Amino acid sequence: MSAMFGSNENTPLLRVKNLQTGFKIEGDYYNAVESVSFDVKRKQIVGVVGESGCGKSVMSLSIMQLLPEGIGKIRGGEIEFEGENISKLSDKRMNSIRGKDISMIFQEPMTSLNPVFTIGYQIAEVILNHENLTKKEARLRSVSLLKQVGIPRAEQIVTEYPHQLSGGMRQRVMIAMAIACQPKLLIADEPTTALDVTVQAQILELLKGVQEANDMSIILITHDLGVVAEICDEVLVMYAGKIIERAPVEELFAAPKHPYTELLMKAIPKMDEEVEKLATIEGLVPSVINMPQVGCRFANRCPKAMPECMTVTPQLVDVGHEHEAACLLFDESWPADRKRDKDRDREGVTAL
Amino acid sequence: MLKYSIRRLLGMIPMLILISIVVFSLAKLMPGDSLSGEIDPLNTNPEYIAEMREKLGYNDPLPVQYFNWITGFVQGDFGKSTRFKIPVFDLIMEKVPNTLLLGVTALVITYIMAFMMGMYSGRRPYTLGDNAIAGFNYIMLAIPSFVAAVFAIYIFAFQLNWFPFAGSVDILVERGSFEYYVSRMHHVLLPALVLGAMSTASYTQFLRNDIIENSRKDFVRTARAKGTPIKKIYNVHILRNSIIPLVTFLGFDFAALIGGAIITETIFTYPGIGQLFLESVTSRDYPTLMALTMLLSFLTLLGNLLADILYGVVDPRIRLD
Known about the structure:
The complex is a heterodimer. Chain A has helices at about 1-5, 55-65, 90-95, 110, 120-130, 135-150, 155, 165-180, 195-215, 225-230, 250-255, 260-265, 340-345, and strands spanning about 15-25, 30-40, 45-50, 70-80, 85, 100-105, 185-190, 215-220, 235-240, 240-250, 315-320, 325. Chain A is an alpha/beta fold. In chain A, a hairpin with a 2-residue loop joins strand 11 (about 315-320) and strand 12 (about 325). Chain A is globular. Chain B is an all-alpha fold. In chain B, about 75% of the residues lie in helices and about 0% in strands. The radius of gyration of chain B is 24 Å and the shape is globular. Classes of the chains: A alpha/beta, B mainly alpha. Chains A and B meet through helix 3 and helix 5 of A and helix 10 and helix 11 of B.
């Protein structure tokens, strides 16, 4: 919360408006991300949670314009970075933003580094891409970056190859690369998923540390609510390509609103409770090809589903405490009053 | 790496002994011997032939003949060519420069063509250009070299008069002069083009497929996220990875450089090792034939060793020890 109001700047660093990203399957586009809107404020850590296949990664790749060429495409909406719409920039212009203003780290540290180049070369590359430095200066900066992310023997590591490092070390190298040009926004796509639990904690601590040291914002994509609770300021819960709940982190954990979020919370093992079996959510996220186009996308798995959930598409509505949820249960005009749309217009309640 | 190389070189010895037995047996299995074809039975005294056979040791038991040959061979005495009556070693050394020139020129042509085509295709797979390149490569692969060589001579030497059709150098130029080297290059170009253009298929298609595969790897996405231009990603990040499997071919090429191209050299009457090899077979010149076969076997083994060492150089994940 403090981070949200700590910044002097009023415009958010990143504003995503109505983003739609489609994938081409047998000639037709299917939206993997559907009307997603959110803001990332300066120095804020925003967590994005959801099951596998709910569009988290696609959304982050859309921001970076790193969708697989010819298959994935931004089909609508805007991505404003510091007030400029970057969703339609040329690849060349994007190259000057990627790695400099917005950088990204990925889930698989084992394969994300090029196996045939030294660590030093790979870190120096991002520096040389964006700054007018000599190779030697870039090399020196690489060493200091490695020290900054807590890698011992940094002078020696720059001459080594990725396969000589452990997974945790490689993720540190990825972070060093990501912060090399002091970006304003770091997108971390499941940065700890492939790592041991102990290493996970270290990496999260490191991310938090570099975020504070460099005054940057982070979008942290994860399916681990524990990670979210640990370092995020705000949380977006995604389901089937849509944001279904948005709240400051304490608020979300104290009072989850959407039945999906509630169920996610129940699926977290608790230290003080002994349960035979962890709660699970029945069924799977619908695939992009047979995504329900009307109604709530979670309805067929939702224990609280009403008949109307199949026919009315819920919008994100304010439920108080800066908390928004997209569920008919919290839409005051529904189901009591079926003339929802008219009422909403009259009352001036906006969907977002 | 040195220890590894020495161990591998020592490991070649039993292999070479086995090869020498096979080479010797095959040579002896050929009908006739070096005297039966060369000497006219009407003019030459049969007793003289018998005497020569005895003198050359052709009447000794096979194991004795083998032993005599191999003891000389390991000491560097490859014997005397029964056809040219000069030591086989000198004969081979005389032809090596020609073959090496042809081999290197052909290989350079192959590499330039294959890398250009492979990188183009790999970057734009399943496009018209990619399919055209694949079509060209497979047609070149399918045409036998004797057909291609004959057509090349007909078109480029006889019709267009661009290249000489035979030999390795103009006989009128002075040896060692500038014209001499120009004339040699002029003579080598057409056979080298035929050889080079015919063998691009494996390199091109291998490179293409490897580039396509590597372009889907996670490290490409990382490089993109760093703001690296796509061109540099293909030419540096991906290419550097895609060279690794090509090293295998390099091992084979090494033997071919000196081994020469039997068919192409013969059609162009280019005096190289390949032509010498074919002549030694038809004239049953055992010492030359066996020495050449041993040489090629050794070079193939050496090429494989070279490839293995190069793997360690191009791929940091491979450690040789």
